[in-house]
Amino acid sequence: MQKGTIQVQTENIFPIIKKFLYSDHDIFLRELISNAVDASQKLKTLSSIGEAKGEYGDLNIEIKLDEEKKTITISDRGIGMTSAEVEKYLNQVAFSGAEEFVKKYKGQNENAIIGKFGLGFYSAFMVSDKVEVFTKSFKEEAPAVRWECDGSPEYMLEETTKADRGTDIVLHINEESAEFLDADRIKGILNRFCRFLPIPIYFRHKEEEKLEEEKETGPINNTQPAWKKKPSELTPEDYQSFYKELYPYNEPPLFWIHLNVDYPFNLTGILYFPKIKQSYEIQKDKIQLYSNQVFVTDEVKDIVPEFLMLLHGVIDSPDIPLNVSRSYLQGDPNVKKINNHITKKVADKLEELFNKERKEFEGKWDSLGLFVKYGMMTDDKFMERGNKFHLFETASNAEGAEKKFYTLEEYRMAAETLQKNKEEKLVILYTTDMVQQDAFIKGAEAKGYIVVKLDTLIDPSFINQMETKWNDVHFNRVDADIADNLIDKQENLDSVLSKDEESALKGLFDLKMPGLNMTVEVKGLSTDAPPVVATRPEFMRRMKDMANLSGPMGSFYANMPDEVTLTVNGNHPIYQQVLKSDNKEMKEKMVHNLADLALLSQGLLKGGNLTNFINRSVDLMGAEQLAGAKA
After folding, report:
1. Is 570 labelled a binding residue?
2. Is 565 annotated as a binding residue?
3. Which residues are CB-neighbours of 383 under 8 A, at least 6 positions away?
4. Contact 209, 221 (CB under 8 A)
5. How far apart are CA 162 and CA 159, in angstroms?
6. pLDDT tens per residue, range 417-473
7. I need a surface site. Which of 73, 245, 393, 477 has the fewest CB within 10 A?
């Protein structure tokens, strides 16, 4: 057996670092500014424990763009480096000075340090032909030094003069990266990655004498964002103002949740519940992930539960495991713990608001319902909590009727006397379109039933899943059958028609219409009920609705003919007239029009069928006027 050490040649590793370490070349500025922040935070730490003498003064970071010289300079007034430290940190690839500092000063605010891998500095070579470093240590006896490298394994290190403590990194931008010599491009990168860093950052690209004027406008970043403060220090106006800072063109949020955890992991942040418009133009990837106030990504699907991806806001944790480029999360138990914690905090907030301010909660249900239903469908633990504050909204169209809201248990108590079927299941009657299904809603309400509104895009899936998760519950759309049959099928209904008349009437309604598979039944309903009622059986309609939502995979079911049941009310007076008529053509037209009116109420009369209905109606009106004139 042989053991040894793998040798890494800098000649081979440098091109890899320069070209492939970071997929996004914009990252170079984030990495270098993060190093400058670390240098400043280290000085604060050393000053607080007495290892750095004197006042450290302003710890501003300055980004200077010189289009003529084709350089970008990143300057800080942090800890600086001695010649030996330059040798140690810059000439040893992947040696992390930040990691070394954290180990040495463990317990001294180590969470303020950003660096982890010791590779961020080398991102400079992705955009530079040459990199110069001018640095002076906080140690008074140490001379300033200058380091230079052109991206090859060779470097130059010499003593130099530098007035102030800290480090200046000068990037000589290469031809391929000329885009980074544009001031607006740099501003965009700074705004994306550095807008909440804890050290003030100033960007200048004008003449030297205008520096003070630019500084008067303030830094480009907010060093004390709301999520870094304690909830007790913030007013509702502060939360609203920070939301506006994050999303300047959005409507104000419904409410927010402030995350502030330091055990068993570090996590801070603010999550906002946005208003969801009825257009359902829902945008995910609105939550921004930070690590020590450095922007990492807005793809947080592993940290935030899927159903909460519709939220907006910020989460920040130094404990979130990132890969070298900070672009992707690494598998780690902390990710799952954070995910579970966020779910619990959201459930706590929703339950608290429901219990303490129910009217306000009900007023926001149009937006909140989407989150709650989505969560109950995808997370069983959340569903256990959600059952307490999930609401059904009534769908009454009656003039002056007040909107009511029921939890599942409240609905059960209010409706189960009338709305239990033969299997002893509670039947929840719902509408997907209060206008189109108005007649069915009124028919159900006339029997004392409670109809609720379930009209969002996710409700078909929600209904299917809750039928399997809730005990003894069945959903029935209000137009799935005539009102008499919505709860229990009643087979023996009295009709004034004889068996022969019923058979003749059923034959008249045996219509063939493209795209519809119709079943006809004659029943004895109230004389006030419509002459014909078109209903779509719940199971088949639900299958088609789900198929329409599932895209190309569901096209087979979506393209199947619509299943429709025509319930002919044999007790309606109009059929005495129809059956007695000797005019076969007129009789067929009247029956066809009655069927079409029923189909029209279900939105099933389209295309040629609708055109035929209009033409037939004109013919019938003309015939009626002619008959009246003869009389």
Report:
1. no
2. no
3. 375, 376, 377, 469
4. no
5. 10
6. 899 888 889 999 999 999 888 988 998 998 899 999 999 888 988 999 999 999 999
7. 245
* SS3 (DSSP) at 558: helix
Residue-level pLDDT at 101: 37
Bridge partners of 517, per DSSP, are 563
Q: Is the N-terminal amide bond of 264 cis, ω within 30° of 0?
A: yes
d(CA 309, CA 288): 11
φ, ψ (nearest 5 deg) of residue 291: -125, 110
| DSSP E strand boundaries for 478-540 | 516-523, 532-535
Mean pLDDT of the chain: 81
Q: Do residues 216 and 52 lie in contact, with contact meaning Cβ atoms separated by under 8 Å?
A: no
pLDDT of residue 209: 44
Using alpha carbons, list the distances in angstroms from residue 218 to 188, 203, 204, 211, 214.
17, 10, 12, 11, 7
Report whether 35 belongs to an annotated binding site.
Answer: yes
Which pTM value belongs to this model?
0.73
Q: Which of 202, 197, 247, 240 is nearest to 222 (CA)?
A: 197
Q: Is 393 annotated as a binding residue?
A: no
Beta bridge partner(s), residue 270: 258, 314
Q: 482's torsion region: left (phi>0), alpha (psi -120 to 50) or beta?
A: beta
The 10s digit of each residue's pLDDT in 101-112 is 345 545 544 444
Q: For 5-59, how does the pLDDT look when each residue is reduced to its tens digit (9 = 90+)?
A: 544 445 555 565 555 555 577 888 988 998 899 889 888 888 888 787 777 888 9
Q: What are phi and psi of 257, to 5 degrees?
A: -130, 125
Let me know: does 523 contact 567? Beta carbons within 8 Å: yes
- CA-nearest of 495, 480, 500, 506 to 591 is 506
> CA–CA separation, 329 vs 297, rounded Å?
10
Residue 2 pLDDT greater than 80, yes or no: no
Average pLDDT over residues 564-576: 86
Residues counted in the chain: 631
76 is in an annotated binding site: yes
| CB-CB neighbours of 309 under 10 Å | 17
- CA 325, 329, 334, 338 dihedral sign is positive
Q: In angstroms, rounded to a whole number, what is the distance separating the alpha carbons of residues 441 and 451?
A: 7
Q: Which token pair is 76?
A: 């800080």
What is the share, in percent, of the chain residues with pLDDT greater than 90? 36
Tokens 């070349």 locate to 25
Q: What is the mean pLDDT of residues 489-511?
A: 77
The answer to whether 97 is a known ligand-binding residue is yes
Phi, psi of 131 (to 5 degrees): -125, 130
